Amino acid sequence: MTAAPPGRSLSRKAGHALRHPAALVYLAVCAILLAWALVVTLADGSDESMAGVIPLLATAPVSLVLLMLPDHGSMLVLAVALGALANALVIGMCARALRRGDSAN
User: Fold this and answer.
1) Are 40 and 83 in contact (CB under 8 A)?
2) How many other C-beta atoms lie within 10 A of the C-beta of residue 52?
């Protein structure tokens, strides 16, 4: 397998990295954690649920930076979603780079 052509667009590289199985599994786990946190938080009417911390930690550091967005429930979802996408991109790129390194030898 040859290396990617140098003129390959950034969006194409990102899409290729996000389709890696490791990145897809990570995105699925983050989606499950976010859904669980939302269900637990909505079921607990006391506003004392700490379930939202779990998906934030799973998608750190990007989600922690984005947590500075205005205080609203949708901002938590946005921070976790963008953090998961950024981390999945890194996971996919690293996994593909490791695979290319193995096939070169």
Assistant:
1) no
2) 20
Our measurement of the distance from residue 73's CA atom to the centroid of its chain's CA atoms, rounded to an integer in Å, reads 18
Place of tokens 């979603």: 81
- Give me the residue label for tokens 């976010």: 34
pLDDT in tens, 17-29: 888 999 999 999 9
d(CA 77, CA 17): 23
By residue count, the chain amounts to 105
Tokens at 72, concatenated = 């609203």
Candidates 30, 38, 35, 31; CA nearest to 58 is 30
5 DSSP assignment: P
Q: How far is 102 from 56, CA to CA, in rounded Å?
A: 33
CB 19 within 8 A of CB 95: no
pTM listed for this prediction: 0.80
